[in-house]
Amino acid sequence: MIQKSSITKRWLLNSLGVILLIVVTLIATLSAVIQGYVYNGIRSALNGRSDELTNMFSSYGRESPTEFSTAARSYVENFPNKESMELMVISSSGKILSTSIGFAPDEDQEIPDYEAALKSSGGYGTWTGRLSSGEKVMAVTRVMRSNLGNTVGAIRYVVSLEDADRQIFIVVGALMIAGLLILLFVILSSYYFMRSIIVPIKRIGATARLIAQGDFKARIRKTNDDEIGRLCDTINDMADELGQSEKMKNDFISSVSHELRTPLTAIKGWAETIQAGDTDRQTFSRGMSIIVRESERLSGIVEELLDFSRMQSGRMTLTMDKIDLLAELGEAVYMFSERASSERKFLLYEEPEMLSPVLGDINRLRQVFVNVLDNALKYTSEGGTISVTADEEDGFIRVVISDNGCGIPAEHLPNVKKKFYKANQTVRGSGIGLALADEIMNLHSGSLEVESHENIGTAVTIRIPTYDKLENELQET
């Protein structure tokens, strides 16, 4: 059953309707042309006969009605085509004197062609219609006039069109059968063509519903390398991406849950210990210090999640100002110096003498440095080195933070800036820090590039245009 709103129904109403209209119009036109051709042929034959008659009576039989009557009767008696057409002799008064068939004529039958011939200057008239008996005929009348211009009589040729119409009907029937065969061929070929489209579309729809319901392993079987085949590839690729995104989201939730649970466990444990009231001053101070530190860690995680939410919704705003990027970088390095020392790692910073100012959000840029330095320390083993350098080149400030840690495998490197993505699930972290840092740099018209080799190390290059470069570009536009 064809659904109310389906491609097949629209095709039936549009394409097939147009084809049907074209075929019907073509058959009707050809039928009219064939009928016109046949009738014109018959009319031409009758005209030829009447021309012969005119030539025959040009030298005699036109002096008086009596002479015409005598000559016409003789012509009728010797007429060779009596079987194919009827010949009538009409007097000057309009009365039928004799016919080639030998039967008495119907006196009530009108003779429109004779009336037309009387009015015609050439004495010629033609008529196509039905007799009182119902037979369809074509008639041609030639009026004969004397040398003085008086009507002396007329000869009328009458041909039945029944056989001609029968032949025309056969030809038109053949055309209709041909038209039906064409329509049948179009319907069958279109059916298989539409089926080749609709069946894959139904499969695509069914698979898409499975994907929408969360079955990211559902795949569409590709049968043809055409537009539908490419659509199948696209949906399959989409399912792969959604599956990876779902996995990264689940990993993210698990990672964040772990990140939140660890400081909460420490805070709860020390709070219960202090609440018990049997702690000495040193234990109390140590517990409060851990509670404060873990609370700050929780606050940082929550703030990072909020920033990520703002980034996703496009609501992240920047407070732009002319700042000294070197000062912010130095402060970020200082923040991690104690941590690097406690973890027995070397944090080296080659501070340049001076760099041009930049236009940026001081807090967001510091957040970028903090995230990258935090990652460098996390993925660098004890005894490893983290190096920080900064320079200016072609109107850009370039900060490179490199380490000799575990590095990133080549298959993970293209995805490290994607949200939720973590190449190493054994190290703490939410997987959104680098994605957030990359978005912040994009908002500053800068960039963040990661280069890494497994078991060798990683280098993160941060580039941001100088204040003067941005100002010149604005003036040019």
UniProtKB/TrEMBL annotation:
Major subcellular site: membrane
Keyword Transcription: no
Residue runs in coiled coils: none
Subcellular location: Cell membrane
Ribosomal protein recorded as keyword: no
Domain HAMP: 195-247
EC number: 2.7.13.3
Pfam families, A to Z: HAMP, HATPase_c, HisKA
Gene Ontology annotations for the cellular component aspect, listed alphabetically: plasma membrane
Keywords: ATP-binding, Cell membrane, Kinase, Membrane, Nucleotide-binding, Phosphoprotein, Transferase, Transmembrane, Transmembrane helix, Two-component regulatory system
Enzyme class: transferase
Catalytic activity: ATP + protein L-histidine = ADP + protein N-phospho-L-histidine
PROSITE patterns: HAMP, HIS_KIN
Topology with respect to the bilayer: Multi-pass membrane protein
MF-aspect GO terms: ATP binding; phosphorelay sensor kinase activity
Transmembrane segment boundaries: 12-34, 168-193
Domain Histidine kinase positions: 255-468
Protein name in UniProt: histidine kinase
Species name: Caproicibacter fermentans
